[in-house]
Design a protein that fits this description.
Elements: E1 7-13, E2 16-23, E3 27-32, H1 46-51, E4 54-59, H2 78-91, E5 97-103, H3 104-115, E6 120-128, H4 142-145, H5 151-159, H6 181-193, H7 195-205, H8 210-219, E7 227-231, H9 240-249, E8 253-257, H10 265-268, H11 270-281
Helix pairs in contact: 2-3, 3-8, 5-6, 6-7
Amino acid sequence: MGTALGQEKRVRLPQGEVRYFERGTGESVVFVHGLLVNAELWRSVVPDVADAGFRCLAPDWPLGSHSTPMAADADLTPPGQAKLIADFLEKLDLREVTLVANDTGGALTQLVMASHPERVARVVLTPSDCFECFFPPMFAYLPTLARVPGAMWLLGAAMRPRITHRLPITFGLLSKRPIAPEVVASYLDPMWRSAEIRRDLRKFLVGVHKRHTLTAARGLRDFDKPVLLAWAPEDRLFRISLAHRLADVLPRATVVEIHDSYTFVPEDQPAELVKHIIGFAGGVAD
């Protein structure tokens, strides 16, 4: 796993150690995945973006599928995770960065745009939590569940059997097509095997609240940098109307539609997403 993403590296941040994969050279593109997935979400996107002349960095953010637990005192609430993303950019001295985000990672990226925009040059948001949709109704139970002792272990146990992977409460509404079993295993095994990973996940989930995305939305009015909203009209969790609402808030936003996809555009339509990233960020093939 991870070969398509490039070389595996690690960086020490105030919150703990973060594993990331790096491939290519040129202007930096940093990928931000969502809840209960990791950098493997971008495995079919990174190679072609890197070949187009970009330095692609795909971290495993601490959202429940990360391989290395964070420090016990790390702030992993949504604002804390946004600070972690900003700290990652600063630690590696990345400038004029293109952020590409999906799902929960899109919500965190909006918090970065509103509160830590200094190193960001442009943003690509695929279907993501935003406004009062953090989480969408189908997954709104998770912050409450996370407060129940032992619930994160039970959640991991319930999601592991392959027969559950296409259910609406797992990946069925996120990916239109089945995800390779070995990739799903990379998503779910860390939570299943590590109490510290479950602790990190719990810390994030109990902090999820729509006030964070609603506050960020007000701040987005001052984000005067290009934003591409590459949304899937068929997505049933994050309706395309949300993309148009974001476009109304953002000073320099464009909406493009990616068809035949649900939330996980990098899974369902990676080639189409690659085309939009390269065109938007101005990549030129060697």
